[in-house]
């Protein structure tokens, strides 16, 4: 079964398919989230959760536009550009159609709603 969440940013909605792991199961229990994500390096938006999630970190080597990951135990990150990285992350999921994600996220901080999509495949 594939789990899907929705990111709503400036009245635009993006679907993301979650990775099946313990981390996403715990994250789902915290949804919906209404958060302000901060910009970092003009390639990602991040938010520090109140509580740590279980981690399954791996060195990913390459980030793709639309990757949704956990850095450390508390920082959720939504990437909007492709680049190489030496950092380790726990995979949370991937935005299905991220083509205009960067333009919708814009520069600076952004308000984001993350919620569970009702239907399951």
Strand and helix layout:
Layout: E1 4-9, E2 12-18, H1 22-29, E3 33-40, E4 44-48, E5 58-59, E6 62-63, E7 67-71, E8 75-79, E9 83-84, E10 88-95, H2 101-105, E11 110-116
Report what the structure shows:
There is one protein chain. A hairpin with a 3-residue loop joins strand 7 and strand 8 (75-79). 27% of the residues are buried. The protein is built from 2 helices and 11 strands. It has one domain (4-102): Cyclophilin. It has 121 residues and is mainly β. It has an 8-stranded antiparallel barrel. Strands 6-9 form a two-stranded antiparallel ribbon.
As for the CATH topology, it is Cyclophilin
Number of strands: 11
Query: Low-confidence segments, ≥5 residues, pLDDT <50?
Result: none
Q: How many domains make up the coordinates? A: 1
Structural class assignment: mainly beta
- Major β-sheet strand ordering: 1-2-10-7-8-4-3-11
How many DSSP H or I helices? 2
How helical, in percent, are the residues?
Answer: 10-25%
Described by the principal axes of the CA atoms, the overall outline is: globular
CATH level-1 class: Mainly Beta
Second CATH tier, the architecture: Beta Barrel
- Topology pattern, helix = H, strand = E: EEHEEEEEEEEHE
Mean pLDDT: 94
Distance between the first and last residues' Cα: 6 Å
- Using only C-alpha atoms, the radius of gyration works out to 13 Å
Largest sheet: 8 strands, antiparallel, barrel
């Amino acid at each position: 079964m594939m789990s899907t969440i929705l990111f709503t940013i400036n009245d635009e909605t993006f679907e993301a398919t979650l990775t099946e792991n313990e981390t996403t199961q715990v994250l789902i229990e915290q949804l919906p989230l209404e958060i302000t994500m901060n910009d970092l390096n003009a390639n990602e938006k991040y938010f520090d959760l109140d509580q740590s999630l279980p981690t399954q970190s791996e060195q990913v080597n390459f980030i793709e536009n639309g990757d949704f990951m956990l850095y450390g135990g508390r920082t959720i990150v939504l990437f909007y550009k492709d680049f190489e990285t030496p950092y380790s992350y726990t995979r949370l999921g991937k935005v299905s159609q991220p083509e205009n994600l960067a333009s919708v996220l814009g520069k600076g901080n952004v308000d984001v709603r993350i919620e569970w999509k009702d239907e399951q495949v």
